[in-house]
Amino acid sequence: MKHQDGCVYLVGAGPGDPDLLTVKALKLIQSADVIVYDRLVSAEILDLAPAGATRISVGKQPQHHPVPQDEINELIVKIARNGRKVVRLKGGDPFIFGRGSEEAIELTDHGVRFEVVPGITAAQGCAAALRTPLTHRGLAGGVRYLTGHCRQDRELDFDWQGLADPDTTLVVYMGRANIPEISEKLIAHGLCGNTPVLAVNNGTTPQARQILSTLKGMPEQVDTAGFEGPVLFIIGKVANLSAKLGGLNAETSEIASAILA
Ligand SMILES: C[S@@+](CC[C@H](N)C(=O)[O-])C[C@H]1O[C@@H](n2cnc3c(N)ncnc32)[C@H](O)[C@@H]1O
In the chain, which segments carry CATH 3.40.1010.10? Predict the structure, then answer.
C-alpha cells in the first residue's frame, strides 16, 4: 500500500527468539510494506511480515559488508520517499552497536519521518537466557557495554585501567576475534585472571551454546569451541551466578566447575 508520507521505523528485533519481540515491533512487522533487514534477524521473525511485503537483505558479516552503510542509508531514504512504510529491522536494539543512530541522522538530514522502536539487546537477552543478572548487590554495582571490534580492525583503544574494575560487569559485543587482547589488557591493568567470564553463542535461539570460564582461560576455550554465529562475553563476578541459578546446560556446568574450582 502506498502512504501519503513514507516513514521509516528503526525497529529492534531482539537477540533471536521471536517471542522476545516487543508488541510494537510485531505490529509494525505485520503491517510493513518493505522490510530492510540485517544478518542477525532470524527467518522466523521475517516470516511474520505480510506475504506481499518486500524483503531486502542488507546483512553484514564481520570483515564482509555486502551493502555498505551509505548505500543502506540511501536505500531507506529512497523507499520512504516513495511513500512506503519501511521497517528497518535490526538485531537486538537499533541504538546499541546497531548503527541505527547513523541511519537516524541520515533520515533527519533528508527530512524523512522516522520512529525508533527499541529491542532487547543481546546483553539483556543472553543474560536472561543464562540466568545471569548483570548487576547484583555485592557483586556488581554497574555494567558497561563495549565493542570488542574497532573500525578497520584498528587496535582497541579503551581506558583499560577504568575497565579493570572488579565491581563492574563488562559485556563485550563483537569481541570474538579480540578476546585474547581484551583478556590480556584487563589482566595487565589489574583485573584478576580468575574473574569468571561467560561466552554466549547464538543466545536465546535453539542453537545456543555457552562456555563459563575465567578471564585467563577464555581465549583458549573459545578457540577450541568452534562457535559459529554471534558471540557475546559477560565478564565479572556475576557470571558465576549462571551456574548457581541453573542457567547452564549440564555439559557446560561440569566443565565450568572443573575450571573454576
Ligand atoms: C553489530 S552488533 C549488534 C548488536 C545489537 N544491536 C544488539 O543490541 O544486540 C552484533 C553483536 O551482538 C552480539 N549478539 C547479537 N545477537 C547475539 C546472540 N543471539 N547471541 C550472542 N551474541 C549476540 C554479538 O556480540 C555480535 O557480534
Answer: 7-117
Between β-strands 231-235 and 168-173, what pairing exists: parallel, antiparallel or unpaired?
antiparallel
Active site residue 38: yes
CATH of domain 7-117: 3.40.1010.10
Q: Is 65 helix (H, G, I), strand (E, B) or coil?
A: coil
How many whole angstroms from 184 Cα to the centroid of ligand 1? Answer: 23
Cβ of 230 below 6 Å from ligand 1: yes
Taking CA atoms only, the protein residue closest to ligand 1 atom 12 is 173
What's the pLDDT tens digit per position in 23-69?
999 999 999 999 999 998 999 999 999 999 999 999 866 556 678 88
Report the separation in Å between the CA atom of 237 and the middle of ligand 1, taken as the mean of its atom positions.
22
Sheet (strand 113-117) strand order = 54-57, 34-37, 85-90, 7-12, 113-117
Rounded Cα distance between 54 and 259, Å, is: 49
Q: Which fold has domain 122-260?
A: 3.30.950
Contacts of residue 261, Cβ cutoff 8 Å, sequence gap at least 6: none
- Which residue stretches of the chain have pLDDT < 50? 1-3
What is the layout of strands, in order, in the sheet containing 142-147? 142-147, 168-173, 231-235, 196-201, 209-214
Which residue of 40, 126, 205 sits with most ligand 1 atoms within 8 Å of its CB, as the best mutation to test the pocket? 40
